[in-house]
Amino acid sequence: MQTTPRLIGRRHLSAALLALPACAAAQLPGATPRQTTGPFYPTDWSGDADTDLVRMTGEAAQAQGVVTHLRGRLLALDGTPLAGARIEIWQCDARGVYRHPRDRAALRDPGFQGRGRMVVGPDGGFAFRTIRPVTYPGRTPHIHVLVDAPGRPELVTQLYVEGEPGNASDVLFNRLAPAAREMVLLRPQPAERIEPGALLAERNIILG
Ligand code: FE
After folding, report:
1. Distance, CA 8 to ligand 1 centroid (Å)?
2. Average of pLDDT values for 162-178?
3. Which of 12, 27, 98, 183 could form a disulfide with 103 if both were Cys (CB 3.0 to 4.6 A apart)?
4. Domain of 50: which CATH number?
C-alpha cells in the first residue's frame, strides 16, 4: 500500500517540474520576429548618419514630419542587455522617399537623414530622434531596424505603428502571428517633456 502515495508524489513532482519552465517562459517576452531587409537598405553610411535623423549636417531646415523619439533596449531572451551591439534604423522621409539611389532623389526631403546608427552601452539602451513613419505605395508606415550583436546572428526587422489603417492590408505585417506583431508595434505618445510637439515611441528589441 506504499506504492500509491509514492506514485501520486511522483506525479505531483513531475507536474511541478513541467509547470516551472512553462510559467517562466510565459513571463518572458519572445524574440523580436525577423522581417525582410527590403530594397532600400542604405548603401551609403558616410557623412551624417548619427542618431538624430531630423537634423542633417549642412541643411538649414530640419526634416518634415512629426518628430518622434524612438527608444528602447537591446536585450537577450533572458533580459540581459546586449552591451556593445550596433543598431541601425532606416525609413522613408515624410514624402515617402528613401535616401537610396533606387528611390526618387528629386522628390526627397533634403532635411531628413534617412538612416542612423549607434552602438549601445552597458544597459543596451538606444535612442533615435526621427519622424513618425509614413505610408508609401504598397506599405503601411514602418521603420526598418538592423541589430548586430557580438556572437549572435544579425537581426533585421521592421517596427509598425498601432492603429494605422494600412496595417490591415500590409503583406509583411500580416505575415506575422498576432503575438509576433505585438513585438514590433509602436504606440507613439505625446512627449512634451522631451520636446514640444514630439512623440515618444518605446520598444525593446529582443534577440533569440
Ligand atoms: Fe520600407
Report:
1. 57
2. 97
3. 98
4. 2.60.130.10
Residue at 5 is within a domain: no
Q: Which pTM was predicted?
A: 0.87
- Asked, for residue 141, whether it belongs to a domain, the answer is yes
Band of residue 28 on the pLDDT scale cut at 50, 70, 90:
low
Ligand 1 center to 15 CA (angstroms) = 47
Residue 9 has pLDDT above 80, yes or no: no
Binned at pLDDT 50, 70 and 90, residue 14 comes out as very low
CA–centroid distance, 139 to ligand 1, in Å, is: 7
Give a three-class secondary structure readout of the chain.
CCHHHHHHHHHHHHHHHHHHHHHHHHHCCCCCCCCCCCCCCCCCCCCCCCCECCCCCCCCCCCCCCEEEEEEEEEECCCCECCCCEEEEECCCCCCCCCCCCCCHHHCCCCCCCEEEEECCCCCEEEEEEECCCCECCECCEEEEEEECCCCCCEEEEEEECCCHHHHHCHHHHCCCHHHHHCCEECCEECCCCCCCCEEEECCEEEC
Quote the domain boundaries for residue 63. Answer: 10-207
What is the domain count for the chain? Answer: 1
Report if residue 1 sits inside a domain: no
pLDDT of 180 over the 80 cut:
yes
Domain-embedded: residue 4: no
Q: How far is the CA of 120 from the centre of ligand 1 (A)?
A: 24
The percentage of residues in the chain with a pLDDT greater than 90, rounded to a whole number, is 86
CA of 144 to the centre of ligand 1 (A): 6
Q: What is the pLDDT of residue 12?
A: 45
Q: How far does residue 132's CA lie from ligand 1's centre (Å)?
A: 13
